[in-house]
Amino acid sequence: MIVGLVIWIGKHIGPRKRMQIQQEMIKPISKKDEAGYLYAYHLTQGPRVSTQHYCYFKIGRSINPTRRVSQVIQKCNYQPKLLDIIPGKRRTAKQYHQQQTTIQKGDDDGRMLKCPISHRVERLIHMELAALYPITGGFKCQGCGTTHREWFRVKRPMVQVQAADAGGEKWRRMTDQEVWLNKIRPVMLHWIQYGVAASALLQALGSRSPSLDQDLG
Predict the structure, then answer these.
(1) What region holds the Bacteriophage T5 Orf172 DNA-binding domain (predicted)?
(2) CB atoms within 10 A of CB 44
(3) Are 94 and 17 in contact (CB under 8 A)?
(4) Alpha-carbon span 158 to 143, nearest angstrom
(5) Of the candidates 120, 103, 116, 96, which has an alpha carbon nearest to the alpha carbon of residue 204?
(6) 43 by DSSP, 3-state: which?
């Protein structure tokens, strides 16, 4: 057993999925695996709008997430709401627009923090989310004609809003924002931390293969 890797894989993941994630982690890292951003959005209009019992999230990676989201508007005719771009500080819609303008002008000089080995990190995020939420939210797009993958359907957890009293317990379902902050975003942050640790180790070793897996712990 590879001790340094398994500590990154939560015990809430079943044995088969744990093995698949572990196998992904020990693959040699491609020289083409560039730094980038992980992003998340959901739709306010389109085929995967949240319902009373379920919410849907798109998780992807890009070197320019805001441009990628704008393509969804232009090519697919959907209305996405960008939830976050990671790494980076949380930004308002106006700040996202300002960042997009800066990148399109070519003013990004590399000072913006990016996630290393972002392709590997994205894959690990998708694998854990697929283990937690196995019913995919992917769909064939009528706008652009392609199949949109990497969508996840999440059943809204119930949360107690009032202590038990004579009238009994009162519960409600989590909002989209609560599900995002409590269920989805922590998974993304976890694997981004792994990407940073793995990249630092590989640079120290001068290698593209995480052969000294025990050091990742």
Answers:
(1) 36-155
(2) 12
(3) no
(4) 35
(5) 116
(6) strand
pLDDT given for residue 157 in this prediction: 96
Return the structure tokens found at 104: 């399109």
pLDDT tens string 84-136:
999 875 555 455 445 444 434 434 434 568 999 999 999 999 999 999 999 88
Token code pair at residue 136: 């995919």
From the number of C-beta atoms within 10 Å of its C-beta (0-12, 13-18, 19+), residue 142 rates as exposed
> What does residue 150 show for φ and ψ, rounded to 5 degrees?
60, 30
Q: Which residues are bridge partners to 139 per DSSP?
A: 148
Q: Is the peptide bond before 15 cis (omega within 30 degrees of 0)?
A: no
3-state percent breakdown (helix, strand, coil) of the chain, nearest 5: 40, 20, 35
In this structure, are residues 25 and 214 in contact, taking their beta carbons and an 8 Å threshold?
A: no
User: pTM to 2 decimals?
Assistant: 0.82
Tokens of 113: 């923090």
What φ, ψ does residue 158 adopt, rounded to 5°?
A: -90, 140
3-state secondary structure the chain: CCHHHHCCCCCCCCHHHHHHHHHHHHCCCCCCCCCEEEEEEEEEECCCECCCCEEEEEEEEECCHHHHHHHHHHHHCCEEEEEEEECCCCCCHHHHHHHHHHHHCCCCCCCCCCECCHHHHHHHHHHHHHHHCCCECCEECCCCCCEECCEEEEECCEEEEECCCCCCCEEEECCHHHHHHHHHHHHHHHHHHHHHHHHHHHHHHCCCCCCCHHHHC
> Is the CB of residue 35 less than 8 Å from the CB of residue 116?
yes
